[in-house]
Amino acid sequence: MNADKRACSLDVDSQYVELAVEVFAMLADATRVRIILALRGGEMAVGALAEAVGKSPASVSQHLAKMRLARMVSTRQDGTRVMYRLENEHARQLVADAIYQAEHALGGTPAHHRSEQVAP
């Protein structure tokens, strides 16, 4: 039984709790959340990301550098351009879940529940 408990990283005494807090801190910025939302569709260059999130390329580059260090995004060289993409699906899912939670905070039936309802 203890072997099973050690294998689960979702226990309250998990070695990953502090790292998870760092992930949340990284996502506690609206620009970074918007960057993740923009990258859901695939790779983008800094200029396209800047336009998508409504920030300057310099600002977006600074956010991307931090996100790259946190291993949320990765890069690929395409000639003279650097293309950014999500490192894995987890940051995308965290952002989606946070937005769904925000919809719940408004009360009523959240949009993400309305789209899942089956018509009679």
Automatic annotation (TrEMBL):
<dbReference type="InterPro" id="IPR036390">
    <property type="entry name" value="WH_DNA-bd_sf"/>
</dbReference>
<dbReference type="InterPro" id="IPR001845">
    <property type="entry name" value="HTH_ArsR_DNA-bd_dom"/>
</dbReference>
<keyword id="KW-0805">Transcription regulation</keyword>
<feature type="domain" description="HTH arsR-type">
    <location>
        <begin position="12"/>
        <end position="106"/>
    </location>
</feature>
<dbReference type="InterPro" id="IPR011991">
    <property type="entry name" value="ArsR-like_HTH"/>
</dbReference>
<keyword id="KW-0804">Transcription</keyword>
<dbReference type="InterPro" id="IPR051011">
    <property type="entry name" value="Metal_resp_trans_reg"/>
</dbReference>
<dbReference type="InterPro" id="IPR036388">
    <property type="entry name" value="WH-like_DNA-bd_sf"/>
</dbReference>
<protein>
    <submittedName>
        <fullName>Helix-turn-helix transcriptional regulator</fullName>
    </submittedName>
</protein>
<dbReference type="Pfam" id="PF01022">
    <property type="entry name" value="HTH_5"/>
</dbReference>
<keyword id="KW-0238">DNA-binding</keyword>
